[in-house]
Amino acid sequence: MIKIAVDTLGGDNGSGPVVEAIIQFLKEYKDVSIIAVGKKEELKKLEGVCEIVDAPDIVPMEAGPLEVMRMKNSSMYKTVMLAKEGKADAVVSAGSTGGFLSSSTLLLKTLPGVNRAAFVAPFPTKIKGHYAVILDIGASNENSAEELKQFALMGALYSEHILGVENPKVYLLSNGTEPKKGSPVGKEAYKLLSNYPFFKGNIEARNALNGEADVIVTDGFTGNIFLKSSEGMAKMMGGLFKDAFMKNLWTMLGYLHVRKGIKNISKIMDYKSTGGAMLLGVNGVVVKVHGNADTYSMFCAIRVAKKLVEKDISGKIKEGI
Amino acid sequence: MIKIAVDTLGGDNGSGPVVEAIIQFLKEYKDVSIIAVGKKEELKKLEGVCEIVDAPDIVPMEAGPLEVMRMKNSSMYKTVMLAKEGKADAVVSAGSTGGFLSSSTLLLKTLPGVNRAAFVAPFPTKIKGHYAVILDIGASNENSAEELKQFALMGALYSEHILGVENPKVYLLSNGTEPKKGSPVGKEAYKLLSNYPFFKGNIEARNALNGEADVIVTDGFTGNIFLKSSEGMAKMMGGLFKDAFMKNLWTMLGYLHVRKGIKNISKIMDYKSTGGAMLLGVNGVVVKVHGNADTYSMFCAIRVAKKLVEKDISGKIKEGI
Fold it and tell me: Tell me, what's the ipTM?
């Protein structure tokens, strides 16, 4: 039986959608038990459904590492502690990213051979059903070349064992394809990675999602810029197309003809279904959901946590690194 | 009379589209004279149309600074020399970015008070007709906080004088809006910029193109990632929508209803019309066009060069910095 601890507080939408997601999840998956952590009075619907741990405090969005570690009655701290004490195999939270990152790395520690944990997310590419794994997308502000090398190894293991890609192709995100291109740290990482057969060189941001790369390695700051620019542009384009369709009766009629195709695009671009960002490299399974997660996002995140436990991603990294 | 020197070699499509662009441009604008630099035998159509300078050599795409400076018979070197000698007010090239950057900065020098030149491009935003100025998008690989401050000043002057924005709002591209967010250099730049009333703080990549920011400041590596991710995503979304429309007769019928709206989107997203990237901070007007520039792109680039000379952007920066 896989045990997943879920932080029900800290998300922008309160505990409501989280409670719903837990109920739906336990209905669908019988081989998982969930521990819901949060304000007891908000979790009445879960009585008899799953274990409940009372934790009345919410870690504020902008909490620093020290603050989180002092908030021992917060839902987040208690959630992570369940993993530390071996009472949960995985933890899921939609709360403060910084807080979740600090509490997870400080309480669970990084795996041997891993200097820093990385947030990783599978990103839809131009090829239907193919995802590129991008890391780090924001756990760090800067990274050393050695850390980038470790990200490459972890990303390859993730792509292989979680996404089922045989011989994943790993690239460094850069401002040109030649080896001499890139940030100073990137150029150093290029050298360190040159001996690994999975490493295929630099890739430009423009081509990152064309389906060629299975894993894209970058420092946390650049990864955040990549993720957010792509998101922003996708949203802008989506909005422009929507405007074009909603102009008048004729254009709406046009929409009727292509709505299946458009829905298909939404499906391809649906970040929710990939279940948020996983913190790779810590001694445990840690899944961070968007702050504004709804029931569906939370459901998918718990499902990802389950898969990561089943596939023993931490064990694979421990072996592989 | 404004004099513009145009490098006709070095672009992926050869001198053909450049020659066409020059002919069209001189037909439309009578207050400009052009000096076409390139292989004499390829410029026969320009005889009697404009001045021709023979330069048979092409600077290779990946040329280093030393190599370019040694290629004194190259079209690029000769083009930039025309500006250095005061024979041209502006230079335009679709050739090697690195080569053009090196020859321009080494021959023309940076303006007093400017440590490093920056590539800048106006970027279409969600608001129709509004452009955000982003710099540096690739002249440097890394930048100091002082350089970012200078980029902010140059960007504000560009936005005001070239795009006609009153009191432009300047932001730093970052991974969060709070002052403590950002790369180490970014955080330092934040402090340096705090005293300037035009500076409005950090902006996330996701919101960079929502129309709020008139100028977005970033180091060259991050700027390249931002530009290319946005470009890549725009292309991917465009392709997905095209697929949706081209599926069958019904979906094509749908397209007929919205084609005006779709064409409008293409217009908004048309990078060609903004005329490539300008190298701000050098003592002269330097416009770099995409390597795969067609006649229309070259035409727009020459038009931008004309505007930059008319508005005396270099003089404005010299005063303002």
Answer: 0.87
